[in-house]
Amino acid sequence: MQPNYSKMTVAELKAECDRQGLEYTAKDRKADLVSILERFAGPIEVEAEVIEDSLERISYKPAVIDAASYLEAKRGWLEKMMAPYKDMDEKAILAMNVDEAKDCRADLNKIIKEVDDERKAIKNAYNQPLAAFEQAVKELLEPAKEDVDKLKQYIDSQEDIKRENIKQGLRATYEDFAPALVPVVPFERVLEINPKWLNLSYGPAKAARELEDAVAKIAKDWEVLKRQAPLMKFYEESEAVFFRTFDLNAAMEHNDMREAEQQRINAMKSDIAEIKAANEPVVPQFEEVEPEPDSYYQVDITPNPEAQNGYTASVSVVSDAQQSRPCIVFVDMTDAEKVELKTFLVQQNIGVRGERYVIDFEQEDRESVLKLVREMQGGGDD
Questions:
Q1: What's the CA gap between 373 and 364, in Å, rounded?
Q2: What radius of gyration do the chain's Cα atoms show?
């Protein structure tokens, strides 16, 4: 039954408001507290009237299924139908081919279905009076169930209002107690610490105390984490882990894990660089030197019918500054021919630089050039 609030003391009224999760102020008088309780009072309790021996008003007899003769007849029928399979052991089954096995299975399923269909028919007939009775009771209770649903909707709406009042009270407690945390930790995130704080049976005062304790621990652990920031290479990631879990140890372990991971990555990069450097070919480095001015002899051989050998050879010194049209001819020859040509050039006081000669020949035929060299040496065609 609903309590008589007018006979309760102010202390008892406040305790009842706390129990029901109702808000009040310190200035509320007894009449105000009574008004708050009566406004949000639940439904009036009533005693249910018990109707004794109500089952006697229902005329029913427990059904009895007399199936002895039926079962005896079916047993004889099954023995006859199963006679072909009397000796069907594992050896007999293995002797069948697949088609024969499928035919036997189909025949047995047909026998089983015939008996099972009769069982289902009896069951349906047996259950018909019960099904009809259950439907009648369901229709009888429908109005009462509709009223229950209406009352449930009302109760739920009132309890939602109370839970919302508790929620707003906890929000105000959080914002007053830890204003520095509000921008970084939303109130909804704080409520996830203990969702039971919004339960009507938990008690708003108890929930507020626990919320303050939890928020104080978050602020303390955050300060500890910030003092460790100079020693942490991955502080920002660790801070994100802290505000996701409110777990200082988890944040510190995340930084340790990331540092170890980065060390492995750096070591791997170093190993790869060393392997790459070891496999790359060594490219020699030469100091770039400004070439000195060069000069060389230029040999001009031209046909001259008046000359003894029919040719005139003239030698001149040509420097880079004097050069107007340098001609470089590479002559393919054997080693013996190379010695011959080199000997001639030396005899003519023409400088030789290694195996390369700067000569301006108008004759491009190798044999003709060698012939000219021999003739100039006085050797003729030999």
A1: 13
A2: 57
* Over residues 107-111, mean pLDDT: 93
pLDDT exceeds cutoff 90 at 167 = yes
- CA–CA separation, 193 and 160 (whole Å): 20
Segment 287-305 shows an average pLDDT of 54
Which strands form 295-303's sheet, in the order they lie side by side? 311-319, 295-303, 360-361
The structural domains of the chain, with segments of one domain joined by +, span 5-41+83-177, 187-279, 295-376
- Please name every residue paired with 301 in a beta bridge, in sequence order, or none if there are none: 313, 361
Determine how β-strand 360-361 pairs with β-strand 295-303.
Answer: parallel
Residue 310 is classified by DSSP as S
Asked if 214 contacts 207 with a C-beta cutoff of 8 angstroms, the reply is: no
In this predicted model, what pLDDT tens digit does every residue of 57-105 receive, in sequence order?
677 777 788 888 989 999 999 999 999 888 888 999 999 999 999 999 9
**Dihedral sign, CA of 167, 168, 170, 174?**
positive
280-311 burial, b if ≥16 CB within 10 A, otherwise e?
eeeeeeeeeeeeeeeebbbbebeeeeeeeeeb
Residue 364 confidence class, pLDDT cut points 50, 70, 90: very low
Helical H segments across the chain, by residue range: 10-20, 30-39, 68-81, 90-94, 98-177, 187-191, 204-227, 235-245, 248-279, 335-347, 366-376
Lowest-confidence pick of 161-175, 212-226, 320-334? 320-334
For 160, the token pair is 């939602």
What is the C-alpha separation between 60 and 16, in angstroms, rounded? 51
In whole angstroms, what separates CA 187 from the centre of its chain?
Answer: 29
Q: Are 55 and 45 in contact (CB under 8 A)?
A: no
| Location of structure tokens 């009574």 | 34
Asked whether residue 187 carries a pLDDT value surpassing 60, the answer given is: yes
What amino acid is encoded at 311 in this protein?
A: Y
| Residues 231 and 238 sit within 8 Å (Cβ to Cβ) | no
347: which 2 tokens? 């005899």
CA dist 165 and 168 (Å) reads 5
Long-range Cβ contacts of 2-10 (<8 Å, 24+ apart):
2/41, 2/42, 2/44, 2/45, 5/33, 5/34, 5/37, 5/38, 6/34, 8/34
> How many residues are recorded in the chain?
382
